[in-house]
Every structure is written in structure tokens, then in C-alpha cells.
Amino acid sequence: MPKGKLTFEYEKCKGCMLCVAFCPVKIMYADKGTLNRSGYNIIRLTDPDKCIGCATCALMCPDSVITVEVYN
Ligand code: SF4
Ligand code: SF4
User: What pTM did the predictor assign?
Assistant: First the structure.
């Protein structure tokens, strides 16, 4: 079971990749096949079940794209 559930406001993403770089379990990636309206690749998870709910991605994101719902 995942420890967290992510929600993205994709249109606010500016493709800085900080979330991808700092996710401790390395499950985040930029989907090269999907762009938001600003032309940046949408960030997705390779394996949502591996999320540990740390919310590092949300804390690092300069544009408040990511919300993490943490499961207890
Ligand atoms: S909450 Fe933590 S483990 Fe889950 S995607 Fe974000 S940085 Fe990775
Ligand atoms: S940190 Fe935020 S703005 Fe940067 S790529 Fe991730 S979701 Fe997009």
C-alpha cells in the first residue's frame, strides 16, 4: 500500500524537475509524451504504490503544483 497520494495541478508546472531530483524513492519522472499548456512535460509516477508519503516533492516544488495526502 502507498503511504501517500499525490495530486498535481499540471498547468502550474514549469518543468524544473526538482521534485524528480529529490524524491527519495525515485518514482517521479517527466512524461515526454504529454505537455501542459505551457509546453512542459507532465510529471508522473512510475509506481505510485512505492510512495512513502514524505511530501518532499511538494515541499521542493516552487510552483505549488503537488499536494500530498499522507495516509497514516
Ligand atoms: S511524497 Fe515523497 S516518496 Fe512520494 S512521490 Fe513525493 S517525494 Fe516521492
Ligand atoms: S517541482 Fe513542481 S514545477 Fe518543478 S517539475 Fe516538479 S511539479 Fe513541476
Answer: 0.95
Ligand closest to CA 68: 1
23: amino acid identity, one letter = C
What average pLDDT does this structure show over 29-42? 98
Ligand 1 atom index nearest CA of 50: 3
Domain 4-70 - what CATH class? alpha beta
Report the C-alpha gap between 41 and 53 in whole angstroms. 23
Band of the pLDDT at 16, cuts 50, 70, 90? very high
Q: What residues does each domain of the chain span?
A: 4-70
